[in-house]
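Backbone-to-sequence.
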């Protein structure tokens, strides 16, 4: 028990240890100069064709929100083949496996390195990859399939370099990052999965740009608001309440709000629908609204304002016209809620990620974004989101592309590897 405790303390110390926090640049330089790291980078280069092949294969397995299972199975098989232990699919659909560290303790702390399995594209989207020179084009090829392939490349590289880390690393292909998925995969991982409470640091690889260190999670709240009314003939029932008028007032009043620019806080009335016929007062109309902020306080304020606006818009409509056949009512359903969060710039994970990016010649910047890291950030667990390297564009569009040109890709890929090895304590 005592030995176990000591080992746990040692493993924790390496994640929050003063040496690392005090001098992330030196820690990064030490890894960079090591024989193992050089061999690992050589492996990234030697197996580049394999990485591209993995990218194409995985991209061509559709993974719409809530339908990531087939891609998950393919990824699970690759994690197994890479030699990880405890390879499994959890109850939410995340696939994962452990690369044991030298400070391993059963039930002890882990460092997580994750990429998301899901894409934004619905079932039936043509996900075949088209290739023009070094450019690969397909929905989802960059966001986030390239990161999935990059994780596999890191596993090969660490084996080739015979690199041992102190910490256990949990490699994860998670579900539910995009849109309606609402971060369900990572939420499960941190709150309900068997590693809940054991994750001491989290790196999400999402997107491409190796200069960006996302250390701030933009929170959001999303509503589907249904307005109902008695409906009626547009001419014959003229003078009756109309849910469309309440919807219109809601949008107009929302757009009269001035939100702060810092912390950046935004809203959008984004989707509308409903109605019966051009010559009918509608029974049912709906509106969808997206609220976002870097600050939990501002997001809550905006949320309250929207709720007051909806209630008032409906009350005004019921006053303005006849409710003889029934009033206008509404029902606001939350369809998405992502917590805000922040990993302080002085935190070791942010410092060393920045140091890794700089050591490889990139001008880094701190960014705010909505990613899987929102969840650990909101729980106070050190987390960052970084890019997988290489040029890419048109994420979330049908003509999404990545460039797998070798020197540029390899340079960018090293940022994640160097960050991970430094964080996990390469020996
Ligand atoms: Zn993504």
């Amino acid at each position: 028990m005592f030995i176990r405790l000591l080992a746990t303390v040692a493993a924790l110390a390496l994640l929050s240890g003063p040496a690392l926090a005090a001098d992330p640049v030196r820690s990064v330089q030490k890894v960079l100069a090591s024989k193992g790291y050089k061999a690992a980078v050589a492996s990234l280069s030697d197996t580049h064709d394999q990485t591209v092949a993995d990218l194409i294969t995985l991209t061509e397995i559709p993974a719409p929100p809530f339908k990531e299972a087939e891609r998950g199975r393919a990824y699970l098989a690759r994690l197994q083949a890479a030699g990880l232990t405890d390879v499994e699919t959890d109850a939410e659909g995340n696939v994962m496996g452990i690369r044991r560290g030298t400070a391993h303790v059963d039930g002890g702390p882990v460092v997580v390195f994750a990429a998301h399995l899901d894409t934004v594209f619905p079932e039936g989207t043509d996900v075949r990859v088209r290739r023009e020179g070094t450019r690969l084009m397909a929905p989802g090829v960059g966001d986030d399939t390239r990161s999935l392939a990059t994780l596999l490349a890191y596993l090969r590289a660490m084996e080739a370099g015979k690199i041992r880390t102190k910490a256990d690393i949990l490699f994860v292909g998670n579900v539910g990052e995009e849109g309606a998925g609402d971060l369900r995969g990572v939420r499960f991982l941190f709150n309900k999965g068997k590693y809940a409470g054991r994750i001491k640091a989290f790196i999400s690889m999402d997107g491409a740009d190796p200069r960006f260190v996302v250390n701030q999670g933009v929170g959001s709240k999303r509503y589907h608001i249904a307005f109902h009314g008695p409906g009626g003939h547009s001419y014959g029932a003229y003078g009756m309440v109309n849910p469309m008028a309440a919807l219109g007032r809601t949008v107009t009043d929302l757009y009269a709000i001035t939100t702060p620019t810092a912390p950046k806080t935004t809203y959008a009335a984004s989707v509308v629908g409903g109605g019966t016929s051009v010559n009918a007062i509608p029974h049912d109309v709906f509106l969808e609204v997206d609220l976002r902020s870097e600050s939990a306080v501002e997001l809550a304020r905006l949320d309250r304002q929207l709720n007051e606006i909806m209630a008032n818009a409906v009350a005004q409509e019921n006053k303005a016209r006849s409710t003889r056949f029934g009033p206008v009512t509404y029902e606001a359903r939350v369809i998405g809620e992502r917590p805000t969060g922040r990993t302080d710039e002085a935190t070791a994970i942010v410092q060393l990620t920045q140091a890794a990016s700089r050591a490889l010649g990139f001008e880094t910047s701190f960014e705010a974004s909505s990613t899987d890291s929102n969840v650990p950030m909101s729980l106070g667990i050190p987390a960052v989101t970084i890019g997988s390297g290489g040029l890419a564009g048109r994420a979330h569009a049908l003509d999404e592309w990545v460039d797998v040109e070798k020197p540029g890709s390899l340079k960018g890929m090293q940022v994640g590897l160097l960050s991970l090895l430094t964080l996990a304590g390469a020996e």
